[in-house]
Every structure is written in structure tokens, then in C-alpha cells.
Design brief:
The complex is a heterodimer. In chain A, 70% of the residues lie in helices and 3% in strands. Chain A is mainly α. Among the domains of chain A are: 264 residues, no CATH class; 79 residues, no CATH class. Chain A has a two-stranded antiparallel sheet with strand order 1-2. The radius of gyration of chain A is 28 Å and the shape is globular. Chain B has a two-stranded antiparallel ribbon with strand order 1-2. In chain B, helix 3 runs antiparallel to helix 10 and helix 18 packs across helix 20. The longest helix of chain B has 32 residues. The chains are: A mainly alpha, B mainly alpha. Chains A and B meet through strand 1, helix 5, helix 6, helix 24 and helix 25 of A and helix 6, helix 8, helix 13, helix 15 and helix 18 of B.
Chain lengths: 655, 475
């Protein structure tokens, strides 16, 4: 079944979006949710069929011409860049993650959002997101990927700001003040996400410009060919040094783009704020799929990063430091979702670490398992929030295992998976990353291992504060959610538990099936460590996980788990946001205000100048009545003089 | 047929004064539709051939006109936005006869600017379009309109005076028999210093009309003081023809001067883009904010045109044409907002809780305006930056910062108006009705269509840009 065209994948959810936005009255209430879910399911079916039908080579389908002069042509002119979709093992896998997990989260949301007045809009945006994400991973060129890239950013903006006016109704001044405060905070979070992503997007664009300057195309398969030609031993290019430094620069720019989208240091502060969106959004966009786009971008560009050792080192260090930053910030959070958000930042750091060390299959494998267990944890958190009527403070939870036994077991599977305990999926994927780090950089390995310990601690803290102990809140009878929510949770729990078995490494008796599969699209050499070393590394990683959990349990027994280590420094995420506000936010506002004054003042100043020039001399008194003319004349002539002078100077220095 | 398209609006504009009062709206809208239809017919036919006749033989002035390539693209957008403006004017302005006449009169001027292939003819249409613009401001403007009016007129008139001098100079020093563009190209000015001075004269007029810093000061006041409905602003946006003038005339007539001043002008353009976007961040008046947003777009257009890079110029013309759609529609959306809340301030708050369609369409238009990919603005902006980077990486980097600033000003203003909670006890805002839907949705749909499927527009722009640059002899 390779007959189904690839464009169907993004098209189905896009139709869903158009229907839900265009005909809101036709799909009200739960009908909207079902329509959205069916559209994603259709995409999933197509993705599955195409994935199973994928042969040895990639599939490449062109649609129509789009951007001027940006692809390789034959002859004097460049050809116009086409819109095209490209399916190989990597993008095939990504489409399955996006549509599969996307479908589960759609179904979950049908129940989760059923009390919201604007369900139609919610599912429209969610469908729009899935469509854009599919364009992102299927794109055959960087600009088309950029369409998906900013498209998911837009969807993320819309969904973070979904409750842009707060959730409560304003019946009197008090409820209005509360709603407005929530509305402002949600709107600010959405805007911040978009603007910080734009910083990264500029990097992505500059990366494309550099690549075009070097190789004359931004189409990825063409680019791969051109890079191969320039750097092949047989090529007679002579000096490849210029190309090498160019590729390094392009890779650094692409890294900036990836940093923005994946919430890495230093563009990380938007991701925790993004938790202002509904919880299914956090699960789908801000954990499982969109934020991993940076990892995807760099894996897709592996043929460039392979040639850029310095840029790759930057990637690895950004990843390592962000993993540490996220873990430290997660230690003392009180919001059930914020703990998970900082954990996501940290886990994305692991993926960057892997990609920077050219261990692409380890990075992508962690992307896969992380999508399972983090979506699971977020949806479980959502179930708790739902049961407690929008309570998100873990200090007002506790003992939830009594009320929601099913969700508790699912959560436990997620916690064990992220802590990397054997047989759970995180064990295999984290292990592969740590092994790659050990082989290439001891410092990064130690950071990675330390983060594993911290991860286990904060996830243990999360688990014990929410599920164990006694209930500290005031809800009468919280209970497990309906099957629409628990069934997706169960499926994700199963995947989080057994997903790791896809890639059992050789020293544990497996065949690294996943890595072998991916290597058909992305050539790479895995780590070749002696058996004893591998075993020792694994043992250390597991010890870190168990140790962190025991640490959390010990604190739980002592009942001082409330206050995690590092105190307010961790709660405030190491004060990074405060730094940005004072170093970037306030000055740029001040400059804007200053420029505005100057721009208005330019008028007054020049007008005043004209007035003063005209006043003393009796010669100009006749001009008094129409002084604006005089002022305009002097201004235009003055500018003419200045520009003329500059122009002459440029010519003079040029020749 | 070409002349019918150019002069039909003017003719109908005069007829409107005679037409029975109850039919004026229908006649005006029908005239704009007919004009648009003629344009589409030319589009299908692939453009019109050059039409050239002597007009004032002793002075060497000819009547040379042609709509093809870039000029046809811009004429089509002008005809379309005039249609939108008339549709909204008929709905919004009580007793709209005068406004409709002025819109139609201005449409003729604008179409003439794009069609003119003789520099004196260009000058004539250039001035011709100014008159209705001034009248709109004078008749329908706000309390400080005199100040804005004088400033607008002074800048434009003095700019075009310099342009006229420069045009005469080109003919005199080049020794061309007429002012027709093809004759002037055949008789180039050979002395580079003379060419530079003539270029500076022409450039100043175009810098006023682009506009470009520091000759932009008329623009914010012009938009702020114009009628709150935003209709004159649509026409004012279409009147930003500086980028087109430089592309069509300056590249052909002053190739050496453009090459020599390239870094300077690209720097000025990039500075304008960033400077305007930064100031827009501080505006609380919707129309002033849109004025600076438009100025920022024009910085991009100028960056593309002055870079003399093929891809960048294609992008510049693409952006110049299509920014009219969403900037114009945003002005009209602002008018609808003002009609409902009685204010043009950006801090009214929570409008989207009550007027979802107005908020949603405005948001879509803003996304188009800040160059979100998949919309027409992106094709233009991206091509400009891509091409300009190949010429001047650092200047392009500065211009690239604008994309961040644009997100900041657009989303901040949008949020303060449409998001957050509606202030307690404020007036209830009604949602879009009838024709208002069309006025906002049609431009947005076109912006999306040409953002995804750019081929129809590229087929007009790309060959024209290649032909112009081929005459330049590569770079």
C-alpha cells in the first residue's frame, strides 16, 4: 500500500481544522472532539500503511513550485524550490509518534475538555498542530520544514493562550479581577513562547541562508548530494576549508533554531510557562512532539553535523547543561505540571547531548520513549487535576492512590520509565546516551549520570507527594476518570513499560533492532565498548535511578519532601527569568520608548529649528506665514545634502 | 482595453456626482469589480503589449503604457483592494458618495503609476494620485489633520519636484528624443558623477514614497489622522510605490549609481525595518502602530530592491504587492474595532471574548503580516532575506532581527485589545455582520493562497525581474 500519497497525512487534520473553524455550529460539544480524533486516526492509518510499505529507499513526492530560485537548476539560473514530502525511516517513525500519540491525546481530550464552552476551537487548534507537525517532519526542504516549524509555534501560541481571558466568569468585580489576572498570565505565557521561538527561528533562517550560499540549494536531498560531492575524496574542489567553516557556521545557526523550539539553554524559560495551556496540550505539544522538533532538525541534518565537530560539541554541551539546569529547577517545584515541565527540559537536554555526540539513534530512541512516558505522566497529572477541579499544587494533594488506583499504577509505570529502571523503556534509551557520553567526554558523562540521580529524586518526590501519604486537600470524593481518559493512559503505560524492548543492546542479548532500522536512513557508528565496561555503566545508571528514588522515599518518610533541595533558587528556576527581565525585557522597552520620543521629536526639533532660523532675519519674515514649507524644504534639502555626501564618499572610497 | 482599465475608475468617479443617490454604492462597487475583471483578463492573456503615442511632441513627452509582469501584479492588487475599500465604505460611511469618488479617482492614479512607461507620465499619475489622498485627509481626517496634511503634501510634492528635475536631467544628459522609458534606456547617461546626482534626485522622491528613514515622518501622522474607518489608509498603503519606482526606473536608468550606493542603501533599509518595528512596540494607537508596521515592511522591500539580487528583488515585489492585502485589511479591521468600542487604543481588552470572528480574522491577518510561513508575506520576506544575505550578510542579520521585533509588537497589541478579560461593565461588542466578513476574510484567504501556491504570482514577477536584471548585466 504505497499508493496513498504522503500529502494526505497533513491534509486530514487540516480539513478537520478548516471544518471546526469554519462551521463551529455544525460541530458543537463532543462532536468536535470526535471529528478531530477521526481526522488524526485517518492520518495514523495512512502513516502506518506508508511506514509498513517503506522500502529500502526513501519516498519523495513533489507537489508544486513554491519559492523562487532556491533549488539547484541546470543551466545559468537556479530552479524554483518545490513543495515536496520525503519519507524515510526517520520521518516515518516521527509520523507514527505524532499521529499515534496525537490520536490518544485527542481521545483523552474529548473527555477532559467536555466541560469547556469552546471545545470546537480547542480541537481545531489541536488538529492544526498535528497537521503542521506532520509537515515539519515530512518536509523535503528546510523552508517547507520552516512552515511546519512556525506552524507548530503558532498552534502552540494559540493553545497556551487557549484560556486567554481566564477560565472563570466575571460576575462581579472580584471574580473579574481573578479572571483577568489568569487571562493576563496565560496570554503573556503564549506571547513569550512565540517571541522566544522567533529568536530561534531567526537562527534557523540564517542557517538556511548560509547553506544556500555554500551549496546553492535548501532542498535537503539535493543538499546532501552537494555536500557529499564537495567533501568526497574524489572531488577536486581543492580547498574545502572554506566549506568546512561554512558548514560549522550553518550548524551553529541551526542549533540556535533547535534551542528555541526545544526550550534549551538559553531560550528555555518559555517552556515551563507554556504549562498555562490545557494539560493535553502540555502532553502533546510541550512534551511528546513539538519540543522534540529541535532534535529532529539536527538528526535530519546529520550529514552536516557529522562534518562540524565544533558545532556538534556545542550541541552536546548545550544539551548537557540544559539537562542539569532542568533537573535542578525541577527539584523544588510545587506545581504538578511544572515539575514535569522542567523534567521535559532536562530530558530534551539528554537528547541534545546524544545528537551532539553523533549518537543519533540513541537520541531518537530517547525521543520515542520520552514521548511515551512523558505523555503518560502529563495525562496522568491531567487526570489528577481534573479529579481535583483544577487544583495543581502538589502540597494540596497526597494519598491519591486511594481515590484513583488505576491512574496511580499508570503513573508508577511512567515514573519507573523516566528513572531508567530495568525493563522500563527509559532504561534502554538513557543507557545508550550515557554510553555514548562515556566514550567521548568524561565530563558530559558525569553530568549525565548526576542528572539521572536528580531525575529519579524529583520524579520520586512528584510520585510520593501526589500519590502516597495522606490527602491534604479539601475535595470530597476525587475518583478515577472515565474510560475515555483511562484507556489512552493504559496504552501509553504499556508503551512506556515495554517500548524499550524495541532496542535491546547486544551486550544484553538483543540486536539493537531500532538502531539498525534507523541506520538505513542515518548512517552512524555505534559505541564499541568492552562488555565489562558496558555492564558497569548500566549498573551505575541503574544505581543512580534507584538511589534517587530511595532518597525521595527517605525524605518522604521524614515528611520533609515538601521542601526540596536548593529551596527558592530551584523554585525560581535559578532566577534565569529575572535575569532576562532586567537585562533584555526592561531595556528593550526603554529603547522603544526612547525611539518613539525621538521619532516624534524629530518633527518638533526640525520645526523649531526652522522657526528659529526664520525669526531673527528680516529676510525670512515673509516666510513666517508658511513656515512648514520652509521647514520641509530645509529638511528635504538637508537630507539630500547628507545623502549626497555619503554617496560621494562611498563612491570615492570604492574606486 | 488597457486605457479602459486605467481610466474607468476616474470616469465613474465623475459620474458618481451625477448618479442618483441610492445607486452610488452599487455603481462604485461594480466599477471596481469591472476594473478588477479587466485586470484578471490581462493576467490570463499574460499582460498587455506596450502602447506608445506622442503626447506633447515639442517636449518629447509620450503616452507610453503597459501592464505586464510586476506592474500587472501590483495593478491587480490595487484593483482588488479598491474593491474591498469601496465595499466597506458603502457599508460604513453614511452618505458615502464623496468617499467613493475619491477612492475611484485614486485608483486611476495608482493604476496609471503602475502602467506608465514614460517618466513624465509617471510623474503626472504620481501627482494625480496625491490629490484624492489629500482630499480624503482634508474632508474625513481627525482633529489634527491640517498638520498631517501639510506634512504629507510637503514631503510628497518636494520629493516629486526633485524627481522631475532628475527626469529632465536624464533626458538632457543622455540625449534621448523622448521621455519614454525605452528611449531613455537606449540613451544612457554615461558620466558616473552626473548619473549619481540624477539618481539622488530620483531616489529622494522614492524614499519619501517608500517610505524610508529619515524621510518617513509624514507617514505616522498621515495614518493617525485619517478617517477612523481605515478606508483612506488602504489607499494610502497602495500609494507606497517607492519600491516599484526604483525597481522599474532606477535599476534601468542608474545601474552604476545603484551598484555604488548599494551597501549604504541596504543599510538604511535594514535600519528602517528594525527602527520602525521597535517603535511600533511602543504604540498604543492602532493606526499609528500599523503605520510603523507598514514602514517596517517597506524597509524589507527596500532591502530587497537595493540589494540588486534576483531572488531578493522577486521577494521585494512579492512583499510589496501582497502586504497591501493584509495591511489594508488590518486597517479596515481597526475601523471595525473603532466602530464597536469607540476607541482606537490598543488597550481595550477582551474583545475576542465577545467578537470571536473579528478577533480570529484580525489574528490571522496579523500572522500574515509578521511573516508566518504559509502566508504570502513569508514568501516575500524570506526571499528578500535569502537574497540579501548573499550580498550583505551583516546588514541582513540586522534586518532579520525585525522578525523578532515584529512578533513582539503585533502580539502585544493584539493581546491587549483582543485577549485578556473584557473590563468589567464595558460595552458589549457585537461580532462581524454581513459584508464585514467578506472585507476581512477575502484578503486573508488570498494571503494564504499566495503563501502556499505562489506560482501564479511568480509567473508574473520572476520573468520581469530577470529581464530587468539582465539589462543590468549581472552583478
Amino acid at each position: 500500500m504505497t499508493g496513498l500519497p504522503l500529502y494526505l497525512l497533513p491534509l486530514f487534520p487540516l480539513i478537520g481544522f478548516a471544518l471546526l473553524i469554519g462551521l463551529p455550529r455544525a460541530f458543537s460539544g463532543r462532536a468536535a472532539g470526535w471529528l478531530g480524533s477521526v481526522m488524526v486516526l485517518l492520518s495514523f492509518v495512512v502513516a502506518l500503511l506508508r511506514f509498513l510499505g517503506l522500502g529500502a529507499g526513501p519516498a519523495h513526492e513533489l507537489l508544486w513550485q513554491w519559492l523562487p530560485n532556491m533549488a539547484l537548476g541546470n543551466g545559468g539560473h537556479s530552479a524554483n524550490l518545490s513543495v515536496g514530502f520525503y519519507l524515510d525511516q526517520l520521518s516515518g517513525l516521527m509520523t507514527l509518534i505524532i499521529t499515534g500519540i496525537g490520536f490518544l491525546i485527542h481521545v483523552y481530550s474529548v473527555s477532559y475538555m467536555s466541560h469547556d464552552a469552546r471545545q470546537g476551537r480547542f480541537f481545531a487548534f489541536l488538529n492544526f498542530f498535528v497537521s503542521m507537525m506532520l509537515i515539519l517532519v515530512l518536509a523535503d526542504s528546510y523552508p517547507l520544514m520552516f512552515v511546519g516549524w512556525e506552524g507548530v509555534g503558532t498552534a502552540s501560541y494559540l493553545l497556551i493562550g487557549f484560556w486567554f481571558a481566564g477560565r472563570g466568569e466575571s460576575k462581579d468585580e472580584h471574580t473579574f479581577a481573578a479572571a483577568n489576572a489568569e487571562g493576563i498570565s496565560n496570554s503573556n505565557a503564549a506571547r513569550k513562547a512565540f517571541i522566544m521561538n522567533r529568536v530561534g527561528d531567526l537562527g534557523f533562517m540564517l542557517g538556511m541562508f548560509v547553506l544556500f550560499k555554500l551549496f546553492g540549494t535548501v532542498n535537503i536531498p539535493e543538499l546532501q548530494g552537494a555536500v557529499g560531492q564537495v567533501f568526497s575524496p574524489a572531488a577536486n574542489v581543492g580547498d574545502t576549508g572554506h566549506f568546512r567553516s561554512g558548514v560549522e557556521l550553518a550548524c551553529l545557526f541551526l542549533l540556535v533554531g533547535a534551542i528555541g523550539k526545544s526550550g534549551q539553554l538559553p531560550l528555555t524559560t518559555w517552556l515551563p510557562d507554556a504549562m498555562a495551556g490545557p494539560t493535553p496540550v502540555s502532553a502533546l505539544i510541550h512534551a511528546a512532539t513539538m519540543v522534540t522538533a529541535g532534535v529532529y532538525l539536527m538528526t535530519r541534518s546529520h550529514f552536516l553535523f557529522d562534518l562540524a565537530p565544533h558545532a556538534s560539541m556545542w550541541v552536546a554541551w548545550v544539551g548537557g547543561l540544559t539537562a542539569l539546569y532542568g533537573a535542578l529547577s525541577a527539584l523544588n517545584q510545587y506545581d504538578i505540571k511544572k515539575i514535569l515541565a522542567y523534567s521535559t527540559v532536562s530530558q530534551l537536554g539528554y537528547m541534545f547531548l546524544a545528537v551532539g555526540l553523533h549518537a543519533y539513534s540513541a537520541g531518537v530512541f530517547h525521543l520515542l520513549t520520552h514521548a511515551f512516558f512523558k505523555a503518560l505522566l502529563f495525562l496522568a497529572a491531567g487526570a489528577v487535576i481534573h479529579a481535583l477541579r483544577d487544583e495543581q499544587d502538589v502540597r494540596k494533594m497526597g494519598g491519591m492512590k486511594e481515590f484513583m488506583p488505576l491512574t496511580r499504577w499508570f503513573s508508577l509505570a511512567g515514573v519507573l520509565a523516566i528513572c531508567g529502571l530495568p525493563i522500563w523503556s527509559g532504561f534502554f534509551s538513557k543507557d545508550a546516551i550515557l554510553a555514548a557520553a562515556y566514550e567521548q567526554s568524561p565530563a558530559l558523562y558525569i553530568i549525565g549520570l548526576g542528572v539521572a540521580l536528580l531525575t529519579a529524586f524529583y520524579m520520586g518526590r512528584w510520585y510520593f507527594l501526589v500519590w502516597e501519604g495522606r490527602y491534604r486537600g479539601h475535595m470530597a470524593h476525587p475518583h478515577d476518570a472515565d474510560p475515555l481518559m483511562t484507556i489512552p493512559l493504559g496504552i501509553l503505560a504499556a508503551l512506556a513499560t515495554f517500548g524499550g524492548l524495541l532496542n535491546v543492546p547486544a551486550f544484553l542479548g538483543g540486536h539493537s533492532a531500532f538502531g539498525a532500522y534507523l541506520s538505513r536512513a542515518i548512517t552512524q557508528h555505534g559505541p564499541e565498548l568492552p562488555f565489562a565496561t558496558e555492564l558497569l555503566l548500566t549498573l551505575l545508571a541503574v544505581l543512580a535511578g534507584v538511589g534517587g528514588l530511595l532518597w525521595a522515599y527517605w525524605q518522604h518518610r521524614g515528611d520533609h519532601l515538601y521542601n526540596g533541595p536548593l529551596g527558592p533558587a530551584s523554585t525560581n528556576a535559578l532566577y534565569l527569568q529575572n535575569l532576562y527581565d532586567s537585562v533584555i525585557g526592561a531595556p528593550s522597552r526603554a529603547i522603544a520608548s526612547g525611539l518613539d520620543t525621538v521619532d516624534r521629536g524629530l518633527d518638533t526639533a526640525l520645526g523649531g529649528l526652522a522657526r528659529n532660523a526664520a525669526a531673527p532675519g528680516g529676510l525670512f519674515t515673509r516666510w513666517q506665514s508658511g513656515f512648514v514649507r520652509a521647514y520641509a524644504v530645509s529638511m528635504v534639502l538637508g537630507t539630500a545634502l547628507i545623502i549626497g555626501y555619503w554617496a560621494l564618499k562611498t563612491v570615492g572610497s570604492g574606486s | 482595453m488597457l486605457h479602459l482599465m486605467i481610466f474607468l475608475p476616474l470616469l465613474v468617479s465623475l459620474l458618481l456626482t451625477l448618479a442618483p443617490r441610492q445607486w452610488r454604492e452599487e455603481i462604485a462597487v461594480a466599477a471596481t469589480l469591472l476594473t478588477l475583471g479587466l485586470g484578471v483578463a490581462f493576467w490570463i492573456a499574460g499582460g498587455t503589449p506596450l502602447f506608445i503615442r506622442d503626447w506633447i511632441p515639442p517636449l518629447g513627452v509620450t503616452y507610453a503604457a503597459q501592464l505586464s509582469g510586476v506592474s500587472l501584479m501590483l495593478a491587480l492588487v490595487t484593483a482588488f483592494m479598491s474593491f474591498i475599500a469601496c465595499t466597506y465604505a458603502a457599508r460604513r460611511i453614511p452618505n458615502p458618495g464623496t468617499m467613493l469618488s475619491l477612492i475611484l479617482a485614486m485608483e486611476t492614479g495608482l493604476l496609471g503609476i503602475f502602467a506608465a512607461r514614460d517618466l513624465v507620465l509617471f510623474y503626472v499619475f504620481f501627482e494625480d494620485a496625491l490629490l484624492p489622498a489629500l482630499l480624503m485627509l482634508a474632508i474625513y481626517g481627525g482633529p489634527n489633520r491640517m498638520n498631517a496634511l501639510v506634512k504629507f503634501a510637503a514631503y510628497t510634492l518636494l520629493g516629486s519636484l526633485l524627481m522631475l528635475l532628475s527626469i529632465i536631467g536624464v533626458k538632457y544628459y543622455g540625449g534621448s528624443p523622448t521621455f519614454a522609458l525605452r528611449d531613455l534606456i537606449a540613451h544612457p547617461v554615461t558620466d558616473t558623477r552626473t548619473e549619481l546626482w540624477l539618481y539622488v534626485g530620483f531616489l529622494l522622491a522614492m524614499m519619501v514614497k517608500l517610505p524610508l528613514w529619515p524621510l518617513h515622518a509624514w507617514l505616522p501622522d498621515f495614518h493617525e489622522q485619517n478617517h477612523a474607518s481605515g478606508i483612506p489608509d488602504v489607499m494610502g498603503t497602495l500609494y507606497k510605490v517607492g519600491g516599484y519606482g526604483i525597481f522599474t526606473f532606477a535599476i534601468a536608468l542608474f545601474p552604476q549609481a545603484m551598484q555604488d550606493t548599494r551597501p549604504l542603501m541596504m543599510g538604511l533599509a535594514a535600519f528602517t525595518a528594525l527602527y520602525a518595528a521597535w517603535i511600533a512596540f511602543h504604540q498604543h494607537h492602532w493606526k499609528r502602530l500599523l503605520a510603523y508596521a507598514g514602514l517596517s515592511h517597506m524597509g524589507f522591500v527596500a532591502l530587497g530592491v537595493f540589494s540588486l539580487n534576483e531572488t531578493a528583488i522577486i521577494g521585494a515585489m512579492y512583499l510589496l504587492a501582497f502586504q497591501n492585502l493584509y495591511t489594508g485589511a488590518l486597517f479596515l479591521g481597526t475601523g471595525m474595532l473603532q466602530e464597536r468600542t469607540g476607541s482606537l487604543d490598543t488597550r481595550v481588552g477582551g474583545v475576542m471574548t465577545q467578537a470571536g470572528a473579528l478577533g480570529g480574522l484580525t489574528m490571522g491577518l496579523w500572522f500574515a503580516s509578521i511573516g508566518v510561513p504559509g502566508m504570502a508575506g513569508f514568501v516575500g520576506e524570506f526571499s528578500i532575506l535569502m537574497g540579501a544575505y548573499q550580498v550583505q550578510p551583516w546588514i541582513t542579520f540586522v534586518a532579520g532581527l525585525t522578525t523578532i521585533a515584529a512578533a513582539a509588537y503585533a502580539l502585544t497589541a493584539f493581546q491587549h485589545t483582543f485577549w485578556q478579560a473584557r473590563p468589567f461593565g464595558s460595552v458589549l461588542v457585537s461580532d462581524l455582520r454581513g459584508g464585514e466578513w467578506l472585507v476581512l476574510a477575502l484578503p486573508l484567504l488570498l494571503a494564504i493562497f499566495f503563501g502556499l501556491y505562489s506560482a501564479p504570482a511568480l509567473q508574473l514577477i520572476q520573468p520581469a525581474v530577470r529581464a530587468t536584471l539582465a539589462a543590468l548585466g549581472g552583478n
